[in-house]
Design goal:
The protein is of the alpha/beta class. Helices cover 63% and strands 10% of the residues.
Length: 596
């Protein structure tokens, strides 16, 4: 936790110091505003000392003092107006920068990272981060920093009146502050736990909202309600505990304040008896004492709130300080594709500590060739595609495109030359026009619509009242599975990349739509190196080569007709099942009851 706290302050400082002029103005106005405010009690001391003399001729002096008080108050008002105006610009800018940093760094994390983290939890962490900066910056400058400044100035002024007054307040302030810091640090681990449970609650909520259809289909509403109640009960317990801890320190602080007030005035009375202090000094002490009470009374709360914000920021700081799993090599250049040849050379790969998925895997696709990958689930087909897109780094071997190792080029340039149509096409909650154009932002409206026609999207899009300006809903839920798939194909057509990857691209289509898409895909595949993953064997009959992968190895390859001739081949078995229908085992006969 200490390391994350240090890193949090480094990140916040780096972002804040992008605007040094505004930061300096904030600091100077705080100092100037407090100086004016702290000078006022000295003028009130002078005012009451003059009144205590009972000299009626001192009216002019009293008016002068009042005018000085007015001037000091106006100066105080002016500096604080400058502070708040600058504060609004500075904080808003830094908080926006932090959001941008979180977004950019988060999005550069690997495919695997997002598989292992709830979307709702990540959103919660990002949103809390700039708020944590605001809270911490406020506590350090506006509250804790200002408190230290005011107490320091007050101690200096009281020291010149009498050292004993300053010594009493200084000793009290040291004990009080040390106790507040110790207590806040003790409470930090519970605040960190509260932040984790809060993130867990948000993640659980987001997960059930995203999967609401499953709750309805499987009658899981009551189960999920009970499960969510269990999570919120956990949040309730840790939140209640941390709040009680905070209120406990308030009780101790109140006792400190009572003791200080008694001690300082007891000493002041003794000094007054000796003729050292005047009536005006009692006004001065009371004014300063009240200020010290308030700033140090709140000091403990400020420190606790700062530590709570540090705990809130820690989870996002951990993400920002975690190196990206997949990184461009130093000096990586852009991938240049002239032909589109793909080659896996002696590739070995495993997911984490699981058993090897690919072991010494060799695979080639010549330029312009259309290759289909088929085989049992878990055999490694999708892994080949993920490695080609460099969603994961391989353990050994090399993946080459036109003889260039993809590990030595930028990820952006690699993915620019590959158009992927995934099995589960996820769309942005944006218009259909924006979703299709996402593949090539510079494309004109006419180019987008032409791609939609080729993918047979234009027909159903034209039926919507808003046409291409229709919003598709979160993850495209307002469209059917087949419609989403056709939009994804339109994006691939618009991207016009030299390498095409189809991962079950027709899996969500009915037979009529599939026929239309097959025509579009034939045009799309012309002149492009194409890798197709499909379970529907009818979609890959026309491929130049079919590669059967089982347990991470190529066990068969050839054209459709060639593989059908293989005796007891995997492809032949799969074809027989799909062509002849699924043979279901007979139901077991019921045993007759004896004696009936």
């Amino acid at each position: 936790m200490k390391t994350q706290t240090k890193n949090t302050f480094k990140i916040f400082w780096r972002h804040a110091w992008r605007y040094p002029g505004q930061a300096v103005v904030l600091i100077l106005t705080i100092i100037a505003g407090n100086a004016a405010d702290l000078y006022a009690p000295l003028l009130y001391k002078r005012l009451f000392d003059t009144l205590a003399l009972g000299d009626g001729k001192a009216v002019a002096s009293l008016v002068t003092v009042l005018l000085l008080i007015l001037g000091v108050r106006l100066i105080h008002w002016l500096f604080w107006r400058v502070y708040w105006y600058t504060n609004a610009t500075f904080y808003a800018r830094v908080m926006s920068d932090l959001l941008n940093t979180c977004f950019e760094y988060l999005q550069r994390h690997s495919y695997n990272f997002f598989n292992n983290n709830f979307a709702g939890g990540l959103v919660r962490r990002v949103n809390r981060y700039p708020k944590a900066f605001e809270e911490i910056a406020d506590q350090l400058t506006l509250n804790i920093g200002q408190a230290v400044l005011r107490v320091g100035v007050i101690l200096a002024i009281l020291y010149f009146r009498h050292w004993a007054l300053a010594a009493i307040i200084f000793g009290w302030a040291v004990v009080y502050t040390a106790f507040s810091i110790w207590f806040s640090r003790y409470k930090l681990k519970y605040d960190a736990e509260r932040a984790k449970v809060d993130t867990k609650t948000t993640a659980h909520l987001a997960d059930t909202i995203a999967n609401n259809i499953n709750l309805k289909i499987f009658g899981g509403t009551l189960r999920e309600t009970e499960s969510f109640r269990g999570v919120t009960d956990e949040l309730y317990r840790i939140r209640r505990f941390t709040w009680i801890l905070g209120w406990s320190i308030d009780s101790v602080q109140g006792l400190f304040a009572v003791l200080l007030e008694f001690g300082i005035f007891y000493a002041a009375v003794g000094l007054w008896q000796q003729g050292i202090l005047t009536v005006g000094d009692f006004v001065l002490i009371q004014a300063y004492l009240l200020q010290i009470f308030w700033v140090l009374w709140d000091m403990g709360r400020y420190i606790r709130r700062m530590y709570e914000s540090i705990a809130d920021a820690a989870e996002m700081t951990e993400i920002l300080t975690t190196p990206h799993e997949i990184q461009d090599a130093p000096g990586a250049g852009n991938l240049r594709v002239t032909e589109g040849a793909i080659e896996f050379q002696d590739v070995s790969f495993r997911y984490h500590s699981k058993k090897s998925i690919l072991k010494h895997f060799d695979f080639k696709v010549v330029p312009g060739e259309r290759v289909a990958l088929i085989g049992p689930s878990g055999g490694g087909k999708s892994t080949v595609v993920r490695l080609l897109l460099r969603f994961y780094d391989i353990e050994s071997g090399a993946v080459l495109i036109d003889g260039q190792n993809i590990a030595g080029v930028t990820q952006e340039s690699l993915r620019d030359v590959i158009a992927l149509v995934p099995q589960d096409s996820i769309l942005f909650h944006r218009t259909l026009l924006e979703n299709i154009r996402y593949a090539r932002p510079s494309a004109s409206d006419d180019e987008v619509k032409e791609a939609a026609r080729l993918a047979h999207c234009h027909e159903f899009i034209s039926e919507f009242p808003d046409g291409y300006e229709t919003y598709v809903g979160e993850r495209g839920v307002k469209l059917s599975g087949g419609e989403r798939q056709r939009v994804a194909i339109a994006r691939a057509i618009l991207k016009d990349a030299p390498i095409l990857v189809l991962d079950e691209a027709t899996s969500s289509l009915d037979s009529g739509s599939e026929q239309l898409i097959q025509d579009a895909l034939k045009n799309l595949m012309k002149g492009r190196t194409t890798v197709v993953i499909a379970h529907r064997l009818s979609t890959i009959m026309q491929m130049d080569r079919i590669v059967v992968i089982e347990k991470g190895a190529i066990v068969e390859e050839g054209k459709h007709e060639e593989l059908l001739k293989a005796k007891q081949g995997i492809y032949q078995k799969l074809w027989r099942i799909q062509a002849g229908g699924f043979a279901l085992p007979p139901l077991p006969r019921r045993k007759k009851k004896q004696g009936v």
